[in-house]
Prior knowledge:
This protein has about 200 residues and is mainly α. It is about 75% helix and about 0% strand. InterPro entries: DNA-bd_HTH_TetR-type_CS, Homeodomain-like_sf, HTH-type_TetR-like_transc_reg, HTH_TetR, KstR2_TetR_C, Tet_transcr_reg_TetR-rel_C_sf.
Amino acid sequence: MARTTDGNGMPVPQRxxxxxxRLFAEQGYGSTSVQEIVEAAGVTKGALYHYFGSKxxxxxxxxxxxxxxxxxxxxxxxxxxxPVERRLRAAAADVVVTTIENLDDAAIFFxxxxxxxxxxxxxxxxxxxxxxxxxxALVEEGQRSGVFTSATPADLVxxxxxxxxxxxxTWYRPDGPLTPQQVAGHLADLLLRALRP
Length: 197
């Protein structure tokens, strides 16, 4: 049976994901072999197949782990006992920060999503839709209560914000003039300005 951790206590699945993420980001998904991933992770192919059924499963998990984190955080913001404007702003800023903190994962996914089988692609799209629907529900809550304008449909507002988020990997640079928190603040403020009555 495959070891769960290495000598430093790092779980093997995390090592495999870290190696795959680095290689997919550097070389592209299609140009990275399973052999390169296991060598970079310091494990056997048997260990990879023990935790992941295929290279495609690794690709799916690269994105799914970020989406799980973002969903968990969004649910906490949405359920908080605070005014809707504050909850939406916190959620809008958080998705920017967590995307920047996992920029390779986001870039890999958007570049390589077409490599997923139709079934896996459908699963990922369903998870993303769940996130977007919860985010949209905050916009709609504010629109119903009159805090936000209803002049622009909630769907369009959400697409506007996430269009910006999904393109972060094409222009954001860690050594650039803005920190992740500054970018997040600016984009969240733009979203709220678009919703002001």
